[in-house]
Design goal:
By secondary structure, this protein is α+β, with helices and mostly antiparallel strands. The protein has nine helices and eight strands. InterPro entries: Cyt_c-like_dom (IPR009056), Cyt_c-like_dom_sf (IPR036909), Cytochrome_c-type_DH (IPR051459).
């Protein structure tokens, strides 16, 4: 389900940031982009949202809805892109990690063909900020809003200034690499805000190692921060759960009796054999006398 239901979004009672609402596509919507968006839509969206304009969406709760409906089309391109990127609710997944930015815009270009009054806003070509050696990034966690915030500033000229229109990607460090979580773009204050999932497993205390990454023109800004915003996990010894008789408390009573009985049986048998050997020795001694 590529396009997130705005009904789901409303239920979450969280507005799309103003900067993201105003965001526009970096290229002109063309028949080629529409055709590409159609293929992406059919592969990722049709199973839930159905065919645009036919109201044959899946009967789910909440209802996915029809992308051709007025309820969808009244949203800006930026709002659609934001929901595609970040997902929302239980049913709407995050597509920042599976669809590229261009692919997400292509889906929007396809959906917009079902709005006869739609006129594409000015192209955002060249609006992305270029990174320089004087830029720095700070990562923090807003406990009140449960948001991770990346702040990028430029100290060129000796004075720090916020840098807008920088795409920042957020990851969680794992044993075998970084797990992509989501992405956002810095606003006029140089801040990129992320609604962080609450179901990512952390350590026993819920700590997660967050990695923020921004890159362009061959340059890269990155920062790592540990925050207690994950889901605490209980470390269990696999042997305690899976071994059959590694400890007495895990062994069934009948198994303990069988084991003890078997050991006693072996001891008694060995004792009996030794007793017989002793008797045989005594008999041989008597015969020799």
């Amino acid at each position: 389900m590529a396009l997130g239901s705005l009904a789901l979004y409303a239920q979450a009672k969280k507005e799309v940031p103003a900067t993201d609402k105003k965001r526009t596509a970096p290229f002109l919507f063309t028949p080629e982009s529409v055709a590409a968006g159609n293929k992406i839509y059919q592969a990722n969206c049709n199973s839930c949202h159905g065919d645009p304009g036919k109201n044959n969406y899946a009967k789910l709760n909440p209802i996915p809805g029809d992308p051709a409906s007025e309820n969808y089309q009244k949203n800006s391109d930026g709002e659609m892109f934001y929901i595609l990127t970040h997902g929302k609710g239980v049913l709407m997944p995050v597509f920042a990690n599976t669809l590229s930015e261009d692919q997400r815009w292509q889906v929007i270009s396809y959906v917009r063909t079902f709005n006869k009054t739609y006129k594409q806003p000015p192209i955002a070509s060249g609006s992305k900020a270029s990174l320089s050696g004087n830029m720095a990034m700070i990562l923090s966690y807003n406990l009140a809003n449960k948001e991770v915030v990346a702040n990028i500033t430029d100290s060129t000229g000796g004075k720090k200034k916020p840098v807008a229109n920088v795409t920042v990607k957020l990851f969680v460090k794992r044993t075998f690499g970084n797990l992509p979580v989501t992405e956002s773009i810095t606003d006029g204050e140089g801040q990129a805000r992320f609604s962080f999932p609450t179901d990512i497993p952390g350590d026993t205390a819920g700590n997660l190692t967050i990695v923020a990454l921004a890159g362009s023109n061959g340059m890269e800004l990155s920062i790592t921060k540990v925050e207690k915003i994950g889901m605490p996990i209980v470390v269990r010894k696999q042997l305690d759960e899976r071994a059959f008789w590694n400890i007495n408390s895990m062994a069934p009573i009948w198994l303990i009796f069988v084991y003890v009985g078997g050991v006693l049986g072996i001891i008694i048998t060995l004792g009996y054999i030794l007793h017989l050997l002793k008797k045989i020795r005594e008999i041989n001694i008597k015969k020799q006398v």
